[in-house]
Design brief:
Number of domains: 1
CATH class: Alpha Beta
Helix content: 40-55%
CATH topology: Rossmann fold
Structural class: alpha/beta
Radius of gyration: 13 Å
CATH superfamily: Response regulator
CATH architecture: 3-Layer(aba) Sandwich
Largest sheet: 5 strands, parallel
Length: 121
């Protein structure tokens, strides 16, 4: 069974890092440029894991967390926040909106794989 992961990330450099880090693994990686597009993908693609940047255009990661946690069909999916190290206060607030953990950018491909391996069966 293919394990689908959705990433909501607007930075093309981080998008490339994600795709590179996970291309040789048994993951179906889907990337959205913002939270609104990510929400559509989440509702239609049924991921096992969601990564979302806190700061994005259209819909940010906190808004996305709030919507997902209120949806009975989606609230069980673990959410990992992606954030710049300078956004610590924003991160603490975001974690209170239902995310299970965070990953500080820039992150290594190994850090990304470690979190995924920890959270996915």
């Amino acid at each position: 069974m293919m394990r689908r992961i959705i990433f909501c990330e607007d930075d093309p450099v981080i998008q490339k890092l994600i795709r590179t880090a996970l291309r040789n693994n048994a993951y179906d990686v889907v990337v959205a440029d913002n939270g609104a597009d990510g929400l559509i993908l989440i509702r239609t693609k049924a991921p096992m894991l969601i990564f979302t940047d806190i700061s994005m255009p259209v819909m940010d990661g906190i808004q996305l967390c709030d919507i997902l946690k209120k949806d009975n069909t989606l609230k069980h999916i673990p959410i990992i926040l992606l954030t710049a190290a300078s956004q610590r206060e924003e991160l603490l607030e975001a974690l209170s909106h239902g995310a299970v953990t965070h990953l500080i950018k820039p992150f290594s491909t190994q850090e990304l794989r470690d979190i995924i391996n920890h959270l996915l069966p």
